[in-house]
Amino acid sequence: MLAITNATVVLPDYYIPNGTILIDSDKIVEVGKKVQIPKNTKIIDANGKYAGPGLIDIHTHADGETFFSDDPVKAASTLLSHGVTSVLPALYFSMTAEQYLEAIKLIKDAMPKAPNIIGFYMEGPYLNPKFGCNRENNPWKDAVNKEKFAPIVDAAGELARVWCVAPERDNIEEFVKYAKSVNPNAVFSVAHSEAEPRDIEKLRKYGLKLATHHTNATGTLYRYPECRTACVDETALYNDSVYVEIICDKIGIHVDPYMQRLIKKIKGDDKIILIADSFVEHGPIPDGDLYEGADDINFDFSGEIAGSKMILDGPCKNIMMHTGASVCQAFKYASTNPATLLSLTDRGEIAPGMRADIIIVDDKFNVEKVFLGGKQVK
Fold first, then answer.
1. Which residues, including other chains, have CB under 8 Å from residue 3's CB and lie 6 or more apart?
2. Cα gap 286→291, rounded to integer Å
3. Residue range 122-131, pLDDT digits in tens
């Protein structure tokens, strides 16, 4: 057995100071201030630091240097060292059908060696070709075609936990219905889209309850000259059942800090999900004051934003700075909420019966120790 003592235990809405977490094998068996520790139990002193649930990144393509589709074991290991105990590698719309199939197989084969990989985040194939980095290389601009998409859906199977779609694409329901038939538990997300509210809301019955990188790669704001209307972002904010992803970089380029505070005010603490959306690009930081210090963001050689260089502990630090969120709230956005979205009932919270995926952080969210299934990996 293992006991983490002298910890500020992070629960979804409050802390237990001077708390103890007792672990047997890969499960948490007891949490509290007066836990009886059996003899011969290994004890780890948290020194008053925060002990919270392992981070769950539902949307990231890389570890900042290496794509999951190139070396999933290396990318997963890097994330684990930063406290990401569950991750959905994201596969992007710029892949051809053959590349999707190759990446799915590669990552599936790697999962025994990368136990924090729990499935796929399918960012495509049917998004709006107007949006997203590398959009000039979009091989999915033609009509929704079952003969073309079915092999990808079948190969990903129940491991495709999230499918991103642009609801305005013609015949998108054909794709959504098929993906739902292969994995009834799949979550659908509105992504890279300029859909009208009615187009988005008609897919809610299939399980659309997520907005991909909220306020990024979305439009359009104006239907009539000088008359602003509701777009994807407003629709996501309006619908209480929809979670919103936030890429929270340190200077607030992806989502302006004021917008982050507005999102937090409207959506509350239960419908925000932090993501890293790490990518691999090597373009220089554009000139000008706007991007000064933007060293955790990727840019392509045209100067366009291409995801981040972050791992999920970074967005946790940043949202605390930009919005005044607490350590407790950061854990909620980066662990509890994504677990709830994906119906992962065995993780995302420090509680008896849960997997012993635990990280210890300081008050700035610097990760000091990581436990995966009860085993210390950092």
1. 20, 21, 22, 23, 35, 37, 41, 42, 43, 44
2. 7
3. 999 999 999 8
Distance between CA atoms of 299 and 285, rounded to whole angstroms? Answer: 6
* Residue 149 dihedral angles phi and psi, to the nearest 5°: -85, -25
Amino acid at residue number 318: N
* Residue 57, helix vs strand vs coil: strand
Amino acid sitting at position 89 = P
Residue 108 phi/psi, 5° resolution? -55, -45
CA distance 103 to 90: 10
The string of pLDDT tens digits covering residues 238-273 is 999 999 999 999 999 999 999 999 999 999 999 999
Q: What is the pTM of this model?
A: 0.96
Q: Identify whether the C-beta of residue 31 lies closer than 8 Å to the C-beta of residue 24.
A: no
Q: Do the beta carbons of residue 69 and residue 366 sit within 8 Å?
A: no
Query: How far out from the chain centre does Cα 372 lie?
Result: 18
CB 20 within 8 A of CB 28: no
Within 13 Å and on the Cβ side, how many CA atoms surround 30? 13
pLDDT band, very low/low/confident/very high, at 149 (cuts 50, 70, 90): very high
Token output for 31? 């949490």
Tokens of 198: 């009615």
Distances (CA, A) of 197 to 40, 104, 124, 222: 59, 32, 20, 13
Q: What is the pLDDT of residues 311-370, one digit of tens each?
A: 999 999 999 999 999 999 999 999 999 999 999 999 999 999 999 999 999 999 999 999
The mean pLDDT of 280-301, rounded to a whole number, is 85
Q: How far is it, in rounded angstroms, from Cα 56 to Cα 331?
A: 10
Cβ neighbours of residue 261 under 8 Å, at least 6 residues apart? 322, 323
- The b/e string for 309-331 (b: 16+ C-beta within 10 A; e otherwise) is bbbbbbbbbbbbebbebebbbbb
Burial of 128 (0-12, 13-18, 19+ CB in 10 A): buried
